[in-house]
Amino acid sequence: MTTEAQLEAQFADTIEAKDRIEPRDWMPEAYRKTLIRQVAQHAHSEIIGMQPEGNWITRAPSLRRKAILLAKVQDEAGHGLYLYSAAETLGASRNELTEKLIAGKQKYSSIFNYPTLSYTDVGTIGWLVDGAAICNQVPLCRTSFGPYGRAMIRVCKEESFHQRQGYELLMTMMRGTDEQREMVQESVNRFWWPALMMFGPPDDDSPNTAQSMEWGIKTHTNDELRQKFVDMSIPQAEALGVTFPDENLKWNEERGHYDFSTPDWDEFWSVVKGNGPCNDQRIAHRKRAWDEGAWVREAALAFAEQSAEAAAPAQTGSAPGQTGSSPATTTEETAK
Amino acid sequence: MTNEPNAPKVHVEHDEAGTTVDHDSHESAYSGLLVNDAHWAFGTDFEDPLAGVDTTVPEGVDPAALAAYCLMLGDDALVFSQRISEWCSNAPDLEEDIALANISLDLLGQARLLLARAAAADPSLVPELPASSPVPDEDRLAYFRDDMAFRNVRLAEVPNGDFAEAVAKILIYSTWRLAIFERLTDSRDSVLAAIAAKGVKEMSYHRDFSARWVLTLARGTEESRARLLTALSGLWPLWAELFETHPTEAVVAAAGIGVDPAAVEDEAGVILDQVFAAAGIDRPDRGALAGVRGKKGRDGLHTEALSRMLAEMQVVARAHPEGQW
């Protein structure tokens, strides 16, 4: 008989050795809960993240750009799928997580609560927002939970592709008219600070970081990642020919890093708490799509059941697009 | 391509157990962003969609007729793609969102090739812009024509309804267009034949996807069946227009480069009836939607919905006629 203490010791050894925890392995309940929360937030971010850029699909100014943008937003739906699947291995179904999202019980990345006010934002989001997301996500490729880490490897590959596409759009626009160059700078001015906030609150105000790092769910602190992002972005901006809206941005020889101003954390918390420019709009959009699709999902289930009955006892029926996710052992998720 | 020094580097190597992940290769998210390689981003590695293709118009064909015909097919694909793209982030579930985006992307790709073919065959069709404008021909056709210059059938432009309307419309469109493309693969215009050959594979998937959903909705629940019947009834008046022969289509069919849509009506009808039979539904009993003094989509006479749709689609491009994208 294996005791709880032995299981915990094995779990700790696996983490210590930087090996992966797999779905059938024993894991502490708090680890499972934390992971569900993080993976669900991540999945929700992909799905909500379809909206700001999706806002410009019907107005993309060339056929080539329309194709690139539509394919990108489609990729985000695909990322959502991988991540909801990873969450399912922890016992949380896609339906259940979606219901929590639209009930406001689970969060998504606050960056998507900012509006896209110009087509240029498609490029800026690719460059800065996807860039920041990659900085956050690359370390997650070796996060301790196997399905999450493997999903992130695929996500990161595609995200870096998107980032390059976004940067390429901005580069192209900078070669265009004066008006286009102004559009790029205007867009960068709007997204720079929200992008820096994507790394989360400062380390001394991030209560979950220590435990998450101990469990190998998180591998770098928020401030470390933010600094890295600033350092990497400056040569990019110079190559592009734009500036960032921060007069304190300068190289610090002693630290070997760029100094920069403190983000407006009041705005950050205000957006996180639901007062961002688009919080209500994003959730209402997702809720509308989900509610309006309910009869379709019901029809697919009913059709699959009929087909299964017709083919009884063999279970062969399957409707197109049927999700088939059954709420197995449901881990109640209350943390925010 | 992967052997080129500047080829995109994929910074991920791992086995399924995740044990041999090369940690360091994940570290720099930005590596390669400034590398000057033209090949990395999908869709950005070429400017001319017909690059390297011989666009000489075959003998015995009026280039203007060939171009007008390509414009018809291209506008169908472009306008329908635009409508389907409106589903993005609005579908009943993620799988359908992805599938609808695929269909929209396929049609967009067809449109781009067909409009480029139209422009190459008859450059006089292409709207004029300031001499310094870098806007390519296919984009000029897509973004700088008004609704009355569009030659698409009205089925492609009608506003979206619910998901039943979406799959019913895709089934009707793809059944019709696939029958045309299968014949068009024998076109004497090798460009059009190649575009059709590519399109056949794509449209087969669209037809399969939509037919399976029509079956599912017809046999799913009472509500899904009722919604499907409503959708089909609303779309049916647009069916007949698909098979009417426009004078341009008659000319290109006679020249062996195009297909007379009337020639595929029986075949398309039989296929649709097979789907309906499997679904246990009948063809709606609705008359054909009239034109205005006989003029319809192919003549540039559209529903009220098209100019509104184009106003949205064209707004950024028209604000920057000399812009680079």
Automatic annotation (TrEMBL), chain A:
Region feature (Disordered): 305-336
Molecular function via GO: phenylacetyl-CoA 1,2-epoxidase activity
GO biological process terms on file: phenylacetate catabolic process
GO CC terms in record: cytosol
Membrane spanning stretches: none
Gene3D superfamilies reported in the protein's UniProt record: 1.20.1260.10
Low complexity bias: start-end ranges: 305-321
Compositionally biased tracts (Polar residues): 322-336
One Pfam family named in its UniProt record: PaaA_PaaC
NCBIfam families according to UniProt: PA_CoA_Oxy1
PANTHER family, sorted: 1,2-PHENYLACETYL-COA EPOXIDASE, SUBUNIT A, PHENYLACETIC ACID DEGRADATION PROTEIN PAA
Protein name as it appears in the record: 1,2-phenylacetyl-CoA epoxidase subunit A
TrEMBL record, chain B:
Classification via InterPro entries: Aromatic_CoA_ox/epox, Ferritin-like, Ferritin-like_SF, PaaA_PaaC, PaaC
One GO CC term, this protein: cytosol
PANTHER family: 1,2-PHENYLACETYL-COA EPOXIDASE, SUBUNIT C (PTHR30458:SF0), PHENYLACETIC ACID DEGRADATION PROTEIN PAA (PTHR30458)
Organism of origin: Brevibacterium casei
Compositionally biased intervals (Basic and acidic residues): 10-25
Protein name per Swiss-Prot or TrEMBL: Phenylacetate-CoA oxygenase subunit PaaI
Region Disordered: start-end pairs: 1-25
GO biological process: phenylacetate catabolic process
Domain of life assignment: Bacteria
Coiled-coil zones: none
Gene name linked to the record: paaC
